[in-house]
């Protein structure tokens, strides 16, 4: 093969990437992985500090996951769920329901987080129509939300950098201020604000509930927004408000699910059950594209009827319930149980929390947000005023390039450095990742 970097630049268009910058600079080409490590084409080893964009759970090239896929491949790679069933999707659906919050009873498969959200929105909308609530056509979401890149999921998103160019294509949604305690949108102090942002949610629901089909939130932490953590009790209060005003609650667990917050699902952190739940990313352990939208029995039953009633949910994807992906997901869930992953991660979360406190000594670290194994370190130009760096300074990008020199792959969200390593990382490796991150931030002048 000719120089892979040159071929990449000749033929590929990368996501969320200014390609002019990409074409002008040297880039990293990954060749293989093992455990928590990735290796480039020059043989250099790197800690996968972001789980290959938040998906890898038990590490790369895990033998049991490899075997599960190979075993299924020797049977059949793909069959459709349109008019047929297949064994892996049936088994996985049962396993997902058994580990999910109480009340979720049905599974609709797709292939990525955006489509899982798109499905949830369409189900919620159609459900309200089928129940006779013809005016319930809109949705409530949080400012700074990110729920994917399809038109529906962007419509309930709120990150201008990603979404504003598409505004003419989107449907309108009600937006409530998100709990961003470091930069409170209401100008309040979290020590005595009494979660006033919740009052904003209730005001919208009280006034417009007759128009709102569902509210969608990422439970406990808004990931792509910069790892914005919710204060304790916020999620539980949102559940109560949605119930009070007869609005469905959609929990987007695409990033937060499968152990990332220390529980199998972030909803468990406050003991709530949504009406619909979206999962993807870690569902296959980071091996194959797969997603699912889980719903309550009540929602499912509303779609039952005679053919002539046309209550069918007319939505589907070619690779819905793909047997290979489902086989990987089944093996992933079995590893959680066999390896006692959720029990083992507790001490690592505590260790990370303790070690992260030292980062406050760094001149440019303004805020550190952690929810389980999900961490955001916000870098600022001035700690006292919380002044941000100029966008064009690309401080976050410079930090992650420094981290690569030291042996770790990170990815920033603007000037928020994200840490989300595989759950299988051991304490020694975690210490190394944190040290690399610390030194990389320290190296970049504030």
Give structural notes.
The protein is an alpha/beta fold. The model has no long low-confidence stretch (mean pLDDT 96). The longest helix is centred in the first third of the chain and has 18 residues, at 113-130. The chain is globular, with a radius of gyration of 22 Å. It has a seven-stranded mixed beta sheet, sandwiched between helices. It has a four-stranded mixed beta sheet with strand order 1-2-3-15. The protein folds into two domains: 4-58 and 340-443, Aspartate Aminotransferase, domain 1, CATH 3.90.1150.10; 67-338, 3-Layer(aba) Sandwich (Aspartate Aminotransferase, domain 2), CATH 3.40.640.10. The protein is built from 15 helices and 17 strands. The chain has helices at 4-11, 19-24, 51-54, 63-73, 87-99, 113-130, 151-155, 160-163, 196-208, 234-244, 297-302, 323-338, 341-356, 395-406, 427-443, and strands at residues 30-34, 37-40, 45-48, 104-110, 138-142, 174-176, 212-217, 221-222, 228-229, 248-252, 276-279, 291-296, 365-371, 374-379, 408-409, 411-413, 416-419.
Which key features would you list for this structure?
single chain, 446 residues, alpha/beta, Aspartate Aminotransferase, domain 1, Aspartate Aminotransferase, domain 2, 2 domains, seven-stranded mixed sheet, four-stranded mixed sheet, 17 strands, 36% helix, 17% strand, globular
């Amino acid at each position: 093969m000719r120089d892979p970097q040159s071929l990449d630049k000749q033929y590929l268009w990368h996501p969320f990437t200014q390609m002019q910058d990409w074409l002008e600079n040297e880039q990293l080409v990954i060749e293989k992985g093992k455990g928590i490590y990735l290796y480039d084409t020059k043989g250099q080893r790197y800690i996968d500090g972001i789980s290959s964009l938040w998906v890898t759970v038990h590490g790369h090239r895990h033998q049991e996951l490899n075997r599960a896929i190979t075993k299924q491949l020797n049977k059949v790679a793909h069959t459709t769920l349109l008019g047929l069933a297949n064994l892996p999707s049936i088994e996985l659906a049962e396993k997902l329901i058994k580990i999910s919050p109480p009340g979720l009873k049905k599974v609709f498969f797709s292939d990525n987080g955006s489509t899982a959200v798109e499905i949830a929105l369409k189900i919620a909308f159609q459900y309200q129509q089928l129940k006779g609530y013809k005016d319930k056509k809109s949705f409530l979401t949080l400012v700074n939300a990110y729920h994917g890149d399809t038109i529906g999921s962007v419509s309930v998103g709120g990150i201008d950098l990603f979404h504003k160019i598409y505004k003419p294509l989107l449907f309108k949604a009600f937006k409530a201020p998100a709990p961003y305690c470091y930069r409170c949108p209401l100008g309040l102090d979290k020590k005595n604000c009494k979660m006033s942002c919740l009052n904003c949610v209730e005001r919208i629901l009280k006034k417009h509930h007759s128009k709102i089909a569902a509210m969608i939130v990422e439970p406990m932490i808004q990931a792509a927004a910069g790892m914005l953590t919710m204060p304790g009790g916020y999620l539980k209060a949102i559940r109560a408000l949605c119930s009070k005003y007869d609005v469905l609650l959609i929990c987007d667990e695409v990033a937060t699910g499968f152990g990332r917050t220390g529980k199998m699902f972030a909803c468990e952190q406050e003991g709530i059950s949504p009406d619909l739940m979206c999962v993807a990313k870690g569902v296959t352990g980071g091996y194959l594209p797969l997603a699912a939208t889980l719903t309550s029995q009540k929602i499912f039953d509303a779609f039952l009827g005679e053919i002539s009633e046309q209550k069918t949910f007319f939505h589907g994807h070619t690779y819905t319930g793909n047997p290979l992906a489902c086989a990987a997901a089944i093996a992933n869930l079995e590893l959680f149980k066999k390896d006692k992953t959720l029990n083992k991660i507790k001490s690592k979360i505590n260790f990370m929390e303790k070690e992260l406190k030292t980062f406050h000594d760094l001149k440019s670290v303004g805020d550190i947000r952690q929810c389980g194994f999900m961490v955001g370190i916000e870098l600022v130009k001035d700690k006292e005023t919380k002044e941000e760096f100029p966008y064009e300074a690309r401080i976050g990008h410079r930090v992650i390039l420094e981290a690569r020199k030291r042996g770790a792959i990170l990815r920033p969200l603007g000037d928020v450095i994200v840490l989300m390593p595989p759950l299988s990382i051991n304490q020694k490796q975690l210490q190394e990742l944190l040290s690399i991150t610390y030194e990389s931030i320290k190296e970049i002048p504030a």
